[in-house]
Amino acid sequence: MAAAITAAREGAKVTIFEAGERLGKKILSTGNGKCNLGNRLLDENCYYGTKTFVKGALERFGTEDTISFFEGMGLMLRERNGYLYPWCEQASVVLDILRNEIAVLGIHVIYQAKVIDVSPKDRGGFLVRTLDDDYFFNRVILACGGKAAPKTGSDGSGYDLAKKLGHRIVPVVPALTALKCKESFFKGIAGVRADAEITILGEDGKAAAKERGELQLTDYGISGIPVFQLSRIAAYQLQKRKEIAAYIDFLPDLANPEEAVNERMALRGSRTVEELFVGTIHKKIISLVLKLTNLKPADSSDHLSRKQIQHFFFLAKRFPVTAIATGDFQSCQVCAGGVDLGQVTENMESKLHHGLYFVGELVDIDGRCGGYNLQWAWTSGHIAGRHAAGRQE
Predict the structure, then answer these.
(1) pLDDT tens for residues 149-198?
(2) DSSP code for 26
(3) Pairing with 379, which of 40, 160, 217, 252 sits 20 to 30 Å away (CA)?
(4) How far is CA 375 from CA 44, 58, 259, in A?
(5) In Å, how far are 130, 142, 161, 167 from 122, measured between CA atoms?
(6) Which DSSP category does 252 fall into?
(7) For helices 372-388 and 63-71, angle between their N-to-C axes, nearest 10 degrees
(8) How far apart are CA 79 and CA 316, in angstroms?
(9) Beta bridge mates, 78
(10) In a 3-state reduction of DSSP, which class is residue 108?
């Protein structure tokens, strides 16, 4: 939609092929239904992929451009800690604004039109084939999305079209999703939320990546924003081996555990073992850690040794879990991987076929949580639409 609007504003005659019954269905689920459409804190480090490519694109269409783009169509915006939302915090309004602009600009939309092939012609232009008919266009922009949430329309068909046109596809994996873990104790702590830091270990046993935020413990493993941020890395590691080690720091602000140990040593006495640790971390986690350290909650704490208390805090700060899978494509928010950027110009144009463009999640760029993936949609769509319409920059 961003590409179509931009191209139409530049004077191009634009047609959108929509495989479903309505445009933009996926927008309705973004930002938990509130549509976090951008972020003030924007740079190339908010993305995975070729950093120089992302940097150049964001310099041409960044946060302020996104604000102008939507406010120019009548959308009132609000900001919360740098996150941009529609004022009414309804994703449906963002979609309405885009659809209205498409109608105002006279963009032709063909619904339930599944594109099955795009073929470059010898004399220029492209034959676009759907299940029902064939069409000819001078320029084609593939904006099919990835494979995340296929029920919303992104079924991976864009990758197939790109492959047929000779483009390399970087292996596609789920991203911004939960991690499934093999430990059986998760059912007993499901529902717990905690401020924590999660670290994923590489094959060498060293930290490969870490994130902090509100961790959500589920009956199958770990979820929440910090896990989502790490899931892309985990997904690619899980392609190489069956499981990956990780650990959770439930006390990320505790810089000196020995001080906490000394405090608990001083509190020993009439308290039970469980009571001794109340006030440190979530009660369900306390119970689990005590079980793993073979300490009985109802026993007197008077006989606890320093070593036993140290072991409790060691586990609270380095609680081991084993990830065996990510969420699937049905449950992830975006995909990592896609059309190799080595075959795409800074204008989002194919280096193999003049007049062919790739945008959004279809290319090998994916962002962190926080409105960055929608920002990439607006950015790449604007650049491709502007250039496809003939505007040189």
Answers:
(1) 888 888 999 999 999 999 999 999 999 999 999 999 999 999 999 999 99
(2) G
(3) 160
(4) 12, 9, 45
(5) 20, 20, 18, 18
(6) T
(7) 80
(8) 36
(9) 85
(10) strand
Four-point Cα dihedral 220, 221, 227, 233, nearest 10: -90
> Which one, of 294, 231, 285, lies nearest residue 48 by Cα?
231
Q: What are the φ and ψ backbone dihedral angles of 297, each rounded to 5 degrees? A: -55, -35
Q: What is the dihedral of CA 199, 205, 206, 208, to 10 degrees?
A: -50
Name the β-bridge partners of 174.
335
In the chain, the amino acid numbered 147 is K
**Type of residue numbered 151:** K
Which residue from 309, 302, 377, 294 is spatially nearest to 61, judged by alpha carbons? 377
**pLDDT tens-digit map of 18-34:** 999 999 999 998 888 89
Please say whether the beta carbons of 206 and 250 come within 8 A.
no
224 pLDDT above the threshold of 60: yes
| Dist CA 94 CA 35 (whole Å) | 7
- Backbone conformation region of residue 238, classed left if phi is above 0, alpha if psi is from -120 to 50, else beta: alpha
The residues, any chain, with a CB within 8 Å of residue 278's CB and separated by 6 or more, are: 286
Residue 229: count other Cβ atoms within 10 Å of its Cβ: 20
Phi, psi of 320 (to 5 degrees): -80, 135
Residue 262's Cα: distance from chain center in Å? 42
Q: What stretch of H or E contains 173?
A: strand 169-175
Q: What is the CA radius of gyration of the chain?
A: 25
Residue type, 358: F
Judge whether residue 362 has pLDDT over 90: yes
The span from the CA of 370 to the CA of 379, in Å, is: 15
Look up residue 118 and give its DSSP letter.
Answer: E
